[in-house]
Design a protein that fits this description.
It contains 16 helices and four strands. It is mostly helical. The chain has one domain. The strands form two sheets. A two-stranded antiparallel sheet has the order 1-3. The longest helix has 31 residues. Bound molecules: zinc ion (ZN) (2 copies). One zinc ion binds next to helix 13.
Length: 345
């Protein structure tokens, strides 16, 4: 990747720079491939499943690959590398870095820088993927916002400044190695399920089935679920810590369920460095279960948590504030109307 595309501007106080024409072409090519190729794989897999069926081996490979690569992002890229929520050994950091890269969500320094910029500007100008910045009104604004927050933001010409947001990743030998070998790791994520299919069943059709289900279908579903964290979870769900976050981040049960806890965005924006995002027993956070298990096995340590005292204080401060996103929209509309009335009078 050239220096013009990595946002490595010398000025550490500028959050993003505008990409050159050639960098823009590269961004569009990479983003387009990530969006379209796995989707074509999903369509092919559905068509094949309807005609020749799907095997238990293919489903098994898909599930294993979905679980380990999603954890690579949630536990590895997000909670460890971006938020330093726990410490661990170099081999474990490498394992998490490889698994996260295999998800096809972008190279580590880019991912971390983009994510920290999202926290810094959450739902305000400068947020790389907020669905709340779309212009217009009503349903059109919602659709435009969701489309931008989910997919279109990846084609943006605004390149996050890595020096400002991910300097620690660039200066860390292990983390930077994970970043540099991103593309080989993505191919590893396609090669392993192909190998698994071939070895388990012993035919080339089974190998291709492994590639399709454990590679392309898995990347398609993992990425769309994780992109929902930035789109759906800044639009729909509960906001128990609204007064603390002052943004549109929401706790969305279903996204949290499939994204292993990442859909609890309001909890997370309120306590960004906490390794556990699910505060109630009914808030799904499979990543936290894995983190607790790893801690019990001595594989990770210095796990940071949002203590119950801090949470209680935040909830007390939140009393009387609307919790639901839909209600917040109504409040926003009232404020806008009131301002307009004041301007007209
Ligand atoms: Zn968020
Ligand atoms: Zn985060």
């Amino acid at each position: 990747m050239s220096s013009s595309i990595n946002g490595n501007t010398a000025n550490n106080r500028i959050p993003y720079s505008i990409a050159s024409a050639s960098a823009r072409r590269t961004i569009r090519l990479i983003a387009g491939t990530v969006v379209i190729l796995p989707l074509l794989g999903l369509i092919t897999a559905i068509a094949l499943a309807l005609t020749t069926g799907v095997t238990f081996t293919e489903i098994g490979i898909f599930v294993v690959m979905y679980v380990v690569t999603t954890l690579g992002i949630t536990v590895g890229f997000h909670r460890h590398y971006a938020h330093n929520s726990f410490h661990t050994s170099t081999p474990m950091r490498i394992a998490l870095g490889i698994l996260g890269s295999m998800a096809g969500q972008g190279p580590l320094a880019w991912w971390v820088a983009t994510h920290r910029r999202h926290h810094r500007f959450s739902d305000e100008d400068g947020d790389p993927h907020s669905p709340q910045l779309a212009k217009g009104e009503g349903l059109g604004r919602i659709v435009k916002g969701l489309w931008y927050g989910h997919i279109a933001w990846m084609f943006s010409e605004k390149i996050t400044n890595w020096n400002m947001f991910a300097r620690d990743i660039l200066n860390d030998r292990t983390a930077y190695a994970m970043h540099r070998f991103y593309f080989p790791f993505v191919f590893l994520g396609l090669g392993l399920p192909t190998l698994a299919g071939g070895v388990l069943i012993g035919t080339w059709q089974a190998a291709l089935g492994g590639l399709l289900w454990g590679g392309l279908v898995r990347i398609c579903l993992v990425d769309h679920v994780l992109w929902c964290v930035g789109s759906v979870c800044h639009m729909y769900g509960r906001k128990p810590f609204l007064k603390l976050t002052r943004d549109h981040s929401c706790n969305n049960f279903w996204v949290a369920f499939f994204a292993f806890g990442e859909g609890l965005q309001n909890n997370h924006h309120a306590f960004p460095n906490a390794a556990v995002h699910g505060f109630k027993w009914w808030e799904p956070d499979f990543s936290a279960l894995v983190i607790r298990t790893m801690k019990a096995c001595g594989l990770i340590w210095n796990v940071r948590l949002a203590t119950s005292d801090k949470r209680r204080a935040a909830i007390d401060a939140n009393k009387g504030i609307v919790e639901d996103c839909a209600q917040l929209e109504a409040v926003d509309r009232n404020v806008t109307n009131t301002l307009e009335e004041a301007r007209m009078s």
